[in-house]
Amino acid sequence: MKRVSPFTCFLLNPGPVNTSLQVRKALLRGDLCHREKEFSDLLLKVRKNLLKSFGLEKDYLAVFITGSGTAALEAAMISSLNPQGKVLVLSNGVYGDRMARIAEIYQFPNRVLRVPLGEPFSLEEIEKVLAEDHKIDAVAMVHHETSTGMLNPIEKISRLKSMKGKRLILDAISSLGGEALHFKKSSIHVCVGTANKCLQGLPGVSFVLVRKDAFEEIKNFPPRTLYLDLRTYWKEQEKGGVPFTPSVQTFYALDVALEELLREHVRGRVQRYGLYAQRLRQGFKKMGLEYFIDSSFHSNTLTALKLPQGLTYDFLHDALKEEGFVIYAGQGSLQKKIFRVANMGNLKMKDLERFLKCLTNVLKKRETKK
Ligand SMILES: *Cc1c(COP(=O)(O)O)cnc(C)c1O
Q1: For the chain, the helix, strand and coil percentages under 3-state DSSP, each to the nearest 5
Q2: 73 CA closest ligand 1 atom index
Q3: Which of these, 84, 175, 209, 335, is most buried using a 10 Å CB contact count?
């Protein structure tokens, strides 16, 4: 049996992703009190570079939260929903359901438009719901539904006639940096991201990008939470401060990751991920593997594949891990039906070529065993 250290595996799960040595080394920059000028300077720099990466310096503000993507998602939703209004949540997967769950837990009036996992929303249906329910003042949805690898058509949805005047809250946690996303064309008001997916930073920091005009409105809503209120973070961050102890070291890592992103450019990264996905899918096809969703909905960063008959996820996972690759299981009802291969992070084409070889061998080995 081959032995590969679990700490040097290629991560083909959708985050945390493989990072560069420089990003990981940043953790060792040193101990720092978050109330000192050095941390303020770092925070301002990271904020500036994040906005700059996506060309948002003029129209958006960025708020950082210590916590995983869900922390920022919860902060974004509960800070930007009006308890007097109503939110329409569009869900076609686990992460859409998570947004619906947040609205329910905090008892925001909501309506959920749910379509089966891996299926596209009907634009007509969205128009219909919005047209008949005038209380709806916000729409919440996921850009890349990571549970199935489906990219939802944010531009088309945001440009529906009935979307006019509605606040759009977007979970772009697994797409920001990995997919083309036109903030202006899609008029996104609130957008949630995290450090440890396509930004290629380390887990521990997530963030919310808020369009400035939307923030003026949001500012007046009553607070629903102490820890996750965006306004509290924003007020402090405007002065270079933070309301609570941040994960200082993961900010060091994000600092380096953003410098790398600025060098590669978001456009370059999107293109690189796109080439990876293309290459992987060529290989999957050749092996006779079947996609879980229609390929026209595929994202740039993840492919969900049906588990071939008689092959368990655990067997596949363990065999590939022995070769140094970590794949990802299906979630919820898909746990026994699919496996997922993501291509985010500091990967090289040659790593993916070797992955395809290993996967081919694992599938063959199973054939001969039958
Ligand atoms: C990863 C992810 C999240 C957040 O998950 P965490 O485990 O909290 O980081 C939320 N939404 C989507 C679409 C994701 O891919």
Answers
A1: 45, 20, 40
A2: 10
A3: 175
b/e map of 246-263 (b: 16 or more CB within 10 Å)? bbbbbbbbbbbbbbbbee
Name the CATH topology of 27-263: Aspartate Aminotransferase; domain 2 (3.40.640)
Give the tens place of pLDDT for each residue, 117-166: 999 999 999 999 999 999 999 999 999 999 999 999 999 999 999 999 99
For the question of whether the overall pTM of this predicted structure is more than 0.90, the answer is yes
- Give the number of other Cβ atoms within 10 Å of residue 107's Cβ: 9
Amino acid in the structure at residue 13: N
Least reliable range by pLDDT among 84-93, 254-263, 357-366: 357-366
CA dist., res. 12 & res. 275, Å (int): 15
If one residue of 66, 95, 97 were mutated to test the ligand 1 pocket, choosing by the most ligand atoms within 8 A of its CB, it would be: 95
Q: 74 in ligand 1 pocket by Cβ < 6 Å?
A: no
Q: Is 324 in the pocket of ligand 1 (CB under 6 A)?
A: no
**Cα–Cα distance for residue pair 291/14, rounded to 1 Å:** 17
- Does position 4 have pLDDT exceeding 80, yes or no? no
Give percent of the chain above pLDDT 70: 98
pLDDT at 365 over 90: no
CA-wise closest residue to 133 among 98, 153, 154, 109:
109
Amino acid at position 241, single letter: G
Query: If 0-12 CB within 10 Å is exposed, 13-18 middle and 19+ buried, where does residue 268 land?
Result: exposed
Superfamily of structural domain 6-17+265-364? Aspartate Aminotransferase, domain 1 (3.90.1150.10)
Q: Which pLDDT does position 3 carry in this prediction? A: 63
Please name the residue whose Cα sits nearest to atom 15 of ligand 1. 174
Same fold, 6-17+265-364 and 27-263: no
